[in-house]
Amino acid sequence: MGNFISQQLLIEIIGAVLGLIYLFFSIRKSLWLWPTGLLSSCFYISIFFYSKLYAEMGLQVYYVIVSIYGWYHWIFGQKDNKTKELPVIRLDFKKLTIYFFSFLFFYAILFFILKKYTDSSIPGWDSVATALSIIATWMLAKKVLENWILWIITDALCIGIYIYKDLYPTAILFIVYTILAYVGYLNWKNSKS
Fold first, then answer.
1. What is the pLDDT of residues 8-29, one digit of tens each?
2. Full-prediction pTM beyond 0.90?
3. Which terminal residue of the chain has fewer beta carbons within 10 Å of its beta carbon, N or C?
4. Which SS3 state, helix, strand or coil, does residue 86 take?
5. Residue closest to 66 by CA, chosen among 40, 42, 38, 89
6. CA-CA-CA-CA torsion for 130, 22, 69, 99, nearest 10 degrees?
7. Using CA atoms, how far apart are residues 177 and 188, in angstroms rounded to an integer?
């Protein structure tokens, strides 16, 4: 049992370090955010499975898929852009409405599944954090500035969830994520592209 716990802790620490590298690349709008995010997500699939955070585990699978999409979109998404870099865009009211109702949809589905079909200890909070993360990740892939605002909210919420589940390296990671999400927002807001 002790060996298993130390293996899980090592996996969590590696996932957290890769997560920090991912965030560093995100703030800098570097294409390298996608492969490091993909690797971090692979480690966290295991971590969340053993912590019974099933929505968070499913979210990591989603992150793997969106990492592949985001990687492709950031390379090939702007064929007519002379700078070859996908520009940062702002959220308009129509997109805000779509994202809001998408959040409600994902939350309702996740909560229903977790409550009815799993032994999740915190299905409501797990569903909120996961639904927000789904939307924020899609916004990041589309290079929408306001993805950072969602990340600030989501990361702050996750700190409490991870402390509650005794995932202390991950809670520390999310404290850093919350602070750096604000830095990312300012960096993207003040950039030209």
1. 889 988 998 998 899 899 989 8
2. no
3. N
4. coil
5. 38
6. 40
7. 16
